[in-house]
Design brief:
This protein has 11 helices and 7 strands. It is of the alpha/beta class. It has a 7-stranded mixed beta sheet with strand order 3-2-1-4-5-7-6, with helices on both faces. The termini are far apart. About 40% of the residues are buried.
Length: about 300
């Protein structure tokens, strides 16, 4: 019997299916007209078959919506280049209202880029878009990508949506250092989980992901402070749980869990709120305090 998740690239089909599910709602938070085609039957099968496949749609949908908000705000504030590392099947360069002069690079493994190019052949990007092939686990290829796309076209934003959790701490440290060495890159948008979240996800999906050699690994106990030695600091921390309540895309029984949380010590409640987040990192040398949170 073939494994449900064959390679880490299959996780892109999985997430695309969640975007399709949201896009087809009458009250959709975003519209991705390409998601259903990109996900294909394989993506639909993964959501149907994975443990808690449908019920775990909410954090992926929240992550997409919140990142959309932050990206649009930064681009509106002057970001000229977006470097989307491990882009998977993300279609923001096609579906968001972006300036035509914006440079957007979607970077991923050759097989993912080939799949994207095949299925997006008739789609028109909203900006100056380019596909770039690279193995981001390779330090040399990361260096080449950063040098090619961001050095002379700042200010630039790097996105690593859904990537870091599959890397080791040394790999993330190396990436943070490399990105920090490119002066044009002023912002880094990512998602980040805690060790508590990692334990929960491993219990639920470890066997499926391990079969594809895609174990979940990175969830630093120190949170965003992990990035401080490499010149990055937390500019914005958007708790996935809090954002899910704001956007009305909460977990099943969210009301019960909120009530239960009020009975816990404050330290435990704060730990829960920081268990999963969308995080914007800024240069430690920059004044990130002036960057207002989207309400």
């Amino acid at each position: 019997m073939n494994p449900l998740i064959r390679t880490v690239s299959d996780t892109a089909l999985w997430v695309a299916m969640y975007r399709a599910m949201e896009s087809e709602r009458s009250d959709a938070l975003f519209h991705d007209p390409y998601a259903r085609t990109l996900a294909g039957e394989r993506g639909a099968e993964i959501v149907r078959t994975m443990p808690s496949g449908r019920s775990m749609a909410w954090p992926m949908i929240v992550r997409t919506a919140v990142m959309d908000e932050i990206i649009l705000r930064l681009v509106g504030s002057g970001v000229r280049t977006v470097l989307n590392l491990a882009a998977g099947l993300d279609t923001r360069a096609y579906r968001l209202r972006l300036p035509v002069s914006l440079r957007w690079f979607d970077v991923d493994l050759p097989e993912i880029i080939a799949y994207r190019e095949q299925h997006l052949a008739d789609a028109t990007p909203a900006c100056l878009h380019e596909h770039v092939t690279a193995d981001l686990a390779d330090e040399g290829e990361r260096t080449s990508v950063l040098a090619r796309t961001a050095r002379e076209h700042g200010p630039a934003l790097v996105i690593t949506e859904g990537l870091l959790i599959y890397l080791t701490a040394p790999q993330v440290a190396a990436m943070a250092s490399q990105i920090g060495e490119v002066p044009a890159v002023q912002w880094w948008l990512t998602d980040l989980g805690s060790p508590r979240l990692l334990r929960m996800l491993r219990r639920r999906w470890h066997s499926n992901l391990a079969a594809a050699n895609a174990p979940m690994q990175f969830a630093p106990a120190e949170g965003t402070a992990f990035f401080a030695p490499f010149g990055w600091r937390e500019a914005e921390f958007r708790s996935t749980w809090e954002e899910s309540l704001r956007l009305r895309r909460s977990a099943p029984m969210a009301g019960f869990w909120n009530w239960l949380g009020r009975l816990q010590p404050r330290s435990r409640r704060e730990e829960s709120l920081r268990m999963s987040a969308i995080v914007l990192l800024g240069r430690a040398s920059a004044d990130v305090r002036s960057l207002g949170k989207t309400e």
